[in-house]
Amino acid sequence: MTFINSLQPHQPALEEEALQQLRLIEIYTRKRIQAHIFGDYESPRKGIGFEFQEHKRYQPGDDYRRIDWNVTSRLQYPYVKQFVAEKEVNVWLLTDLSSSMFFGSSGRTKSEVMTETVAVLGFSASHLNMKVGFLGFSDQVESILAPRQSRTVTWEILGLIPRSRPGPRTTRFAGVVETLLKRIKGTSMIFLLSDFIDLEQIFETAGVRHLARHHELIPVVLEDPLEKTVPRIPGLHCTRDPESGRRRMSYWSAENVQRYERKMKDRRDRLTRLFYRMDLDFLWMDSADDDFVDRLVEFFLRRGRIS
Description:
This protein is an alpha/beta fold and about 300 residues long. It has two domains: about 15-35 and about 85-305, Rossmann fold, CATH 3.40.50.410; about 45-85, no CATH class. Helices cover about 35% and strands about 20% of the residues. The chain has eight helices and ten strands. It has a six-stranded mixed beta sheet, with helices on both faces. A two-stranded antiparallel sheet has the order 1-2. Strands 8-9 form a two-stranded antiparallel ribbon. Helix 6 (about 205-215) links the parallel strand 6 and strand 7 (about 215-225). Helix 1 (about 15-40) runs parallel beside helix 3.
């Protein structure tokens, strides 16, 4: 279910303002990565590779899934496994470009937040000399860029993300995995950015499970505040589904509002349980949250090659 108040359409930010914000993200991300490298840097080869190297005592922030329980039971203190990357790890940014991503009730659309998220992840990977690739999809694969190590690759990717969607465009994941598997080489970190509306079922498919087993699949769920709660203003309101274009009148009684909020909470809980069951790291991004760059950089460093 997608909730859209068609009486308050979001106006895209000016292009120059958006470019300025992305430039600031690039500068800030570079400083954060450099500070990390010259501060806690240990080895560029440690991280999500698959060849075991050594044990080390567990420290806050370490991946709990790497705990070796046999060693822990003998030494009476948690120890985690350290791995050496077998090959360079590529980063793939899979972005949902369907119509529902271009809605925003709090000053920014989900697509704008997604674009800034792509910028943080892409610049972080580039500053660590990792190759970055891109795949944009809606009801089909719209654009694809093979992983490349370049200072400008993230800017090329940002240029492939549209600022608006003139007509309804639904979300279909069929064909995305097949296209990716033909292009993907070696071990990859795959960030899947979407609002996941009507996409929960993809995690039950063989293709997505294959990606989760053989690569580092990281869902990034983008939400608008109206997709969690709605104003308690009784009366009839016109709503529009951005992907189908269908409009309908809804009565916002207290009971209906509570029913809607319960349904959206159940959806969030269902997705979270699914990610835990598949042993996936994941992120929730609120389009009203202006303070997420630090959180994204720290998350990337934790999941990337630097431990």
